[in-house]
């Protein structure tokens, strides 16, 4: 699959940061979970992270009007260093305050990184580049998901969490070095301020963009349910770090199989998206019987479904956004991130009331997440149809303008 040199450099940035984010996603959450095995603690950490992420994404987009994406990647690396310093040395009696102090720099990392990645991809991405990028990024993600957990499980067993936190400074340094070769994208040449035309009606001005709104809200709900409980289900199966690492390898391997099928079978995007959401829905139902094998099977189904969802859903949305100018894209991305995170935060607030993997509240959350997952293919299809119709209208308008005027008849 061919991609441009700029996209290759973006993928290098993606790989460097993914090692850090994968470690945080598994072992920082596990570090918080092990203290009291509390769903509340892990949920509180993710809630603080996403609140900070939402603000950092907007700030990062604003910084692009004066600086380049390289500044954001360097800031991401610096926040990574701060995170591992705090994890190594910060001690507070108030546990919720301690968790919040850890969550804030991680949220800034994610917000700045997502802002830099999105605007870079839309500037360089053209048509098939999006599918190529997301497919290759998935491969990189799975390789990291296989090697990273096992490597750090052994490292933590050998030198403890503190040693692994210090070792992560090596990868933070690598990310800092990579920032010097990433494409220096900036909005500095755009004279119009980012937040001048940020009203909802001004940003979502077309039918295709308007369909993104319910799609992002529904996606945020089920993404957060899957993301958080996939961790908790895994932590509930075993306390052994190597077993947890091997389970994550199993999930990654399942995704690689799903990716191979995606490449070999010539099936329409919409069909793959529907298959993905059905896998996710089945995965949501299995935890109604919270037995260890079913929790593992649930994670396998949702992980495979997430591959199909992420590849198709993101490709379609980026394709729609790329038709707009750079400053318009930045505004759309800010709103898109806010919508996703508003939904994520809503789900996290609801999860705060879950004390164990059973009961009316837990079943209600499963039903809520399930409904949102099942409506995604319809929202995505309506948005794609609107996009294709708008493209056809633009082509028709261009054809009319390019037609030569008829010769004048002699008088």
From TrEMBL:
Region annotation (Disordered) maps to 387-411
SUPFAM superfamilies the UniProt entry points to: MFS general substrate transporter
Which UniProt key words apply to this protein? Membrane, Transmembrane, Transmembrane helix
The membrane-spanning stretches of this chain are 12-32, 44-64, 71-90, 96-113, 133-159, 165-190, 211-236, 242-262, 271-289, 295-313, 333-354, 360-379
**Bias kind Low complexity: ranges:** 389-403
- Gene3D superfamilies for this protein: MFS general substrate transporter like domains (1.20.1250.20)
Official protein name in the record: MFS transporter
Which organism is the protein's source? Paenibacillus rigui
């Amino acid at each position: 699959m061919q991609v441009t040199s700029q996209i290759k450099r973006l993928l290098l940035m993606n790989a460097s940061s993914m090692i850090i984010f994968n470690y945080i996603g598994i072992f920082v959450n596990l570090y918080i979970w092990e203290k009291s095995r509390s769903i509340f603690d892990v949920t509180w950490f993710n809630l603080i992270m996403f609140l900070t992420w939402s603000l950092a994404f907007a700030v990062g987009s604003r910084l692009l009007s004066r600086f380049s994406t390289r500044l954001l990647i360097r800031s991401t690396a610096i926040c990574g260093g701060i995170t591992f310093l705090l994890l190594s040395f910060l001690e507070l009696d108030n546990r919720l305050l301690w968790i919040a102090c850890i969550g804030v720099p991680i949220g800034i990392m994610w917000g700045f990184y997502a802002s830099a990645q999105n605007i870079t991809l839309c500037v360089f991405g053209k048509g098939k580049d999006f599918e190529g990028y997301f497919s290759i990024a998935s491969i990189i993600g799975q390789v990291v998901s296989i090697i990273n957990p096992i490597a750090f499980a052994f490292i933590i067993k050998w030198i403890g969490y503190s040693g692994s936190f210090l070792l992560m400074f090596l990868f933070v340094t690598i990310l800092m070095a990579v920032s010097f070769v990433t494409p220096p994208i900036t909005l500095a040449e755009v004279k119009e301020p980012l937040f001048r035309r940020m009203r909802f009606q001004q940003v979502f001005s077309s039918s295709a963009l308007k369909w993104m709104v319910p799609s992002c809200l529904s996606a945020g709900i089920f993404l957060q349910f899957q993301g958080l409980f996939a961790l908790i289900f895994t932590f509930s199966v075993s306390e052994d770090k190597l077993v947890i690492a091997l389970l994550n390898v199993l999930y990654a391997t399942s995704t690689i199989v799903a990716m191979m099928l995606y490449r070999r079978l010539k099936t329409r995007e919409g069909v793959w998206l529907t298959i993905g959401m059905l896998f996710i829905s089945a995965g949501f139902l299995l935890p109604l019987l919270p037995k260890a094998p079913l929790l593992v099977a649930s994670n396998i189904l949702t992980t495979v479904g997430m591959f199909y969802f992420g590849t198709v859903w993101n490709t379609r949305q980026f394709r729609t956004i790329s038709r707009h100018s750079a400053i318009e894209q930045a505004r759309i991305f800010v709103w898109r991130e806010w919508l996703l995170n508003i939904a994520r935060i809503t789900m996290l607030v609801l999860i705060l009331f879950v004390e164990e993997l059973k009961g009316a509240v837990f079943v209600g959350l499963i039903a809520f997440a399930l409904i949102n997952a099942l409506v995604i293919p319809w929202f995505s299809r309506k948005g794609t149809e609107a996009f294709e119709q708008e493209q056809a209208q633009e082509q028709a308008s261009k054809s009319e303008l390019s037609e030569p005027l008829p010769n004048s008849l002699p008088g």
